[in-house]
Amino acid sequence: MRKFYYLALVALVAVAFSSCQKNEPTFYLQDLQGLWLEKGDTVVGHYVRFTDEKSDENPYLYGREWTVKDDKHEEDLINQRTKDGHPGNGWFKYELKTDGTLTEIHLMKNGGAEIPQVFVVSKLTATALEYYEKDNKDWKYSFTRAKE
After folding, report:
1. CA atoms 131, 136, 137, 139: torsion sign
2. CB neighbours (10 Å) of residue 21?
3. Measured between alpha carbons, how far is 94 from 117 in angstroms, rounded to an integer?
4. Which of 2, 60, 70, 108 has the fewest CB atoms within 10 Å, i.e. is most exposed?
5. Do the Cβ atoms of 105 and 94 come closer than 8 Å?
6. If 0-12 CB within 10 Å is exposed, 13-18 middle and 19+ buried, where does residue 18 land?
7. pTM of the complete model
8. Which residues share a beta bridge with 88?
9. Confidence of residue 127 (pLDDT cuts 50, 70, 90)
């Protein structure tokens, strides 16, 4: 009987510890990919597209961002790459990890500079995307899924 109580106690402790585990959200690449418009931004028109196009560096994929107010459109970025053979201003490489770490490396045409930024995704649904800069939580970004 004593052995039964010991096993019951061990089982109870195991259940208690497993219920205390923190369930972190998991983020998936296919939920991120597509066209996003910065939330509340109907005048400037700041768009970001996360594509499934593989970049020149694994495991990164290409993305693009543009602002309609500056008379820039996605077609301009695509045409510039077709003309030059490589992406430049407005293009970035990105990687999303399942823990919500989003790394973007912005590409600059002049000098070939690559500017890395690391973000933490706080929300990713079919219609909403929110993230903040890892080193500065005051820099928050909020997007809604845009119509294609």
Report:
1. negative
2. 7
3. 9
4. 2
5. yes
6. exposed
7. 0.79
8. none
9. very high
Decide: 115 and 106 in contact? Cβ < 8 Å: yes
Distance between CA atoms of 91 and 88, rounded to whole angstroms? 6
Domains recognised in the chain with CATH numbers: 25-145 (2.40.128)
pLDDT tens-digit profile of 10-61? Answer: 555 555 555 555 567 789 999 999 999 998 766 678 999 999 999 988 999 9
- Both tokens assigned to 62: 């290409």
Residue 135: C-alpha distances to residues 17, 33, 38, 60, 117 (Å): 32, 24, 21, 21, 9
| Identity of the amino acid at 53 | E
Which amino acid, 140?
K
In sequence order, the 6+-apart residues with CB closer than 8 A to the CB of 131 are: 100, 102, 119, 120, 121, 122, 140, 141
